[in-house]
Amino acid sequence: MAGALIKKGIDHLKSKEFRNYLMSTHFWGPIANWGIPIAAIADTKKPPEIISGKMTIALCLYSAIFMRFAIKVQPRNLLLFACHITNETAQIIQGCRLINYEYLGGKEAAKTKAAAAAVVAT
Fold first, then answer.
1. pTM for this prediction
2. Distance (Å) of CA 112 to CA 99, 105, 117, 121
3. pLDDT tens for each residue of 67-82
4. Dihedral sign from CA coordinates of 9, 34, 70, 24
């Protein structure tokens, strides 16, 4: 049973349709776009003072528009949809970090923590 399933999978990978898919913009467009959510996920480890609110909003809007496009285009581009839903999630997390830092006391807490660390270091 498992052998037949593996053989069927290998036959699919060898098919002309799959090779055509790998050479299409339905594959390479989303692959190129994955750099944006990967960078956003990596940026969650950086301090919140470097977050650009304008860019975060722009990327949220961009991903929302292209999520809709990925579903509406025929045939549906689920790889593009996955890329943009990942980016939307990462940008919302960055936006929440920015709001917490700028407007909900995160900046003051960071200053207090830095001052306390300076006192301990001396």
1. 0.74
2. 18, 11, 9, 14
3. 999 999 888 989 999 9
4. negative
